[in-house]
Amino acid sequence: MAACKPAQEPAATPGPATSGPARSVASEQGEARLTVVARGLSHPWAVAPLPDGGFLVTERGGQLRRVGADGSVSAPLAGVPAVAARGQGGLLDVALAPDFAQSRRIYLSYSEPGDSGLAGTSAAYATLGDAGLQDLTVFYRQEPKVDAENHYGSRFAFDGQGHVFISQGDRTQRPTAQELDKLQGKLVRLRLDGSVPDNNPFVGQAGARPEIWSYGHRNAQGLAFDPRTGKLWETEHGPRGGDEINLPQPGKNYGWPIVTHGINYSGQPIPEAVGKAQEGMEPAHFVFEVSPGLSGMAFYTGHPGKPWNDSLFLGALAQRNLIRLQLDGDRIVAEERLLHDLGERIRDVRLGADGNLYLVTDETDGKLLKLEPPQG
Predict the structure, then answer these.
(1) What are the boundaries of each domain within the chain?
(2) Among candidate residues 239, 246, 232, 292, the one with its CA nearest the CA of residue 261
(3) Strands laid side by side in the 163-167 sheet
(4) Which residues of 200-219 are buried (b: 16+ CB within 10 A; e: fewer)?
(5) Burial class (CB in 10 A: 0-12, 13-18, 19+), 261
(6) Considering 151, 217, 237, 261, which one is annotated as catalytic?
(7) Are 251 and 214 in contact, with CB atoms under 8 Å apart?
(8) Is the pLDDT reported for residue 16 higher than 70?
(9) CA 253 to chain centre
(10) What is the pTM of this model?
(11) Pairing of strands 163-167, 12-13
(12) H or E segment at 26?
């Protein structure tokens, strides 16, 4: 059981349901509509739509809040684990369990503090109650913890077959992404209770962590299954240039830091890099040569006849917009940038049961936004 913050009784606080009427958003496929659902959030990191029309939103500083369908924002919910809220660390992803309607279980990822300033990506599940979280259980810890502030990852994705995938960052320790005895720079697959599946690719291999699904990842902040095919898609930050989309396969090596399209922020080459390709390492499915700063991702599928059907949406932090990629099967056939004029870092994007997209902006005055797709 992780350490918890002091209990605070959540109560609705004033928050506008909207900031004025919905406004038009220009799109190549027709007019979309954007509405501010709530504002005044402190660096929100993730949003999970709830069946009742409300939302759970994480704030990087360590708060989990409910946002009502009317835009009301709760006080911080009790029972959230303590976080190392420095650099890029804090309370990160939130996701509903596949059986949430029955279990009320949610999943949280966060930077867990250790001794002497060390920290690592961890994951916990808990039951969502009226007054906060109950029975919090930490089921995964990235090991070893390190003294660094950045590159935690992390997102959840559920495959519908009893497994949860958790994306990781390399924690700025580049070589560890290639070291199978460490969990930095890895995508891991676990059962929903945190146990390791017997058919994970490195189970039983000496010197390798059995949790690992794939490796050679830099800082993966987007993760989702394509509802059409069941394939897992992952996005990760390159250094200066070279943000990637990958379709991770079990046991495969995705190259970082040996293979990259980017360079160091100083303008110098990555010391370990040999180029953009290397035998035995998987090429990226798609590369952004100029880094958008890819974060949350969501598929918009199952809406035949709608202009945005079969699209993949990606939040962009550095370029402060929303990316729409048109898909033909797995192929990316067109790219469109939306919400330029918003001028805010889009940290997460999710598809709601109502067919609308929900976004959070990573700002001091962070917003929860509703984007209604063009209707054709």
Answers:
(1) 12-372
(2) 239
(3) 156-158, 163-167, 186-191, 212-215
(4) bbbeeeeebbbbbbbbbbbb
(5) buried
(6) 151
(7) yes
(8) no
(9) 21
(10) 0.94
(11) unpaired
(12) none
Q: Is 278 exposed, middle or buried (0-12, 13-18, 19+ CB in 10 A)?
A: middle
| Contact predicate 55/65, CB 8 Å | no
- The span from the CA of 206 to the CA of 87, in Å, is 34
Known catalytic residue: 163?
no
Class of 12-372 per CATH?
A: mainly beta
Q: Which of 288, 351, 318, 335 is nearest to 27 (CA)?
A: 335
Q: With contact defined as beta carbons under 8 Å apart, do 322 and 348 qualify? A: no
Residue of 216, 150, 146, 233 lying closest to 180 (CA atoms): 216
Count CA atoms within 13 Å of residue 157 on its CB side. Answer: 31
Over residues 226-282, the pLDDT tens digits come to 999 999 999 999 999 999 999 999 999 999 999 999 999 999 999 999 999 999 999
Provide the residue count of the chain: 376
Q: Is the four-CA dihedral 205, 208, 210, 216 of positive or negative sign?
A: negative
Give CA–CA dist 372/73, Å, rounded. Answer: 22
> How far apart are alpha carbons 123 and 100 in whole angstroms?
17
